[in-house]
Amino acid sequence: MSPAPAVPLAAAKPAPLTRVDDAGVTTLTLDDPSSRNSLSEEMLAALGETFRAIAADRSVRAVVLAATGPVFSSGHNLKQMTARRADADRGRAYFAQVMDACAAVMQQIVALPQPVIAAVQGTATAAGCQLVATCDLAVASAKAQFCTPGVHIGLFCSTPMVALSRNVTPKHAMEMLLLGEMVPADEAFRMGLINRVVPAGEELAAAQSLARTIASKSTLTVATGKKTFYAQREMALGDAYRYAAAVMVDNMLARDAEEGIAATIEKRPAHWEDR
């Protein structure tokens, strides 16, 4: 799966996104609580640029996506979008550019060789909920809530629906989309939107712990598995088995599979070469 091309937006100011690297785990933090960590022009541009850099960085083995403040992300920046209604085309070209940029970032996450784990400390709504659903794993605070509220403002959450409908059952997805109600963390867990619920304040540490566990594995194996997972689920059953079998044959011939199997037989720790 090739990374989706990111659509550049003209960032008017430095993006409120921070990056910390620690022993193979990169933590990215949305740090714009004044806009409720909206997916503004600046934030989308920064996320796109950062994910492109991470995809090529062999030192990064797993990624944690966190946020500051009471809101994980409120989704698109409606103030920026509303301001463009004054354009000659009533904002059509700008709206399309923003939607393309957001979709590209979501596809970058899926195509990234490294797993991405969301650490959700607060509310994730609309495209913010889409962002959580797009991540490979998600850990949430017991105080976190999730919502696709576009139906309340006459703007159906059609693009968040893409990620949401690929993570939860159709009826759960439609319930969220049609009612626009807040879903508490324990219900989101039951629906399959998130992996784990932890006490408030422990979500980042829990996500980083998962990331460190993943970082201890062969990066070749993890990247192969992630790519295969997303590719096969779009296929018919027979095609999926043929594709996965071919991947497994290639994987069996990789140096890390040879080492891992030998280590298991010999009852010793494996020494990964990531090839």
TrEMBL record:
Enumerate the UniProt keywords alphabetically: Fatty acid metabolism, Lipid metabolism, Lyase, Transit peptide
Q: Which Pfam families match?
A: ECH_1
Q: Which CDD domains match?
A: crotonase-like (cd06558)
Domain of life from the UniProt record: Bacteria
Spell out the InterPro entries in the cross-references. Answer: ClpP/crotonase-like_dom_sf, Enoyl-CoA_hydra/iso, Enoyl-CoA_hydra_C, Mitochondrial_ECH-domain
Bilayer-crossing regions: none
MF annotations from Gene Ontology = hydro-lyase activity
Q: Which SUPFAM superfamilies match?
A: ClpP/crotonase
One GO term (biological process): fatty acid metabolic process
Q: Tell me its family.
A: Belongs to the enoyl-CoA hydratase/isomerase family.
- Write out the function statement from the record: May play a role in fatty acid biosynthesis and insulin sensitivity.
Q: What is this protein called?
A: Enoyl-CoA hydratase domain-containing protein 3, mitochondrial
Organism (species): Phreatobacter aquaticus
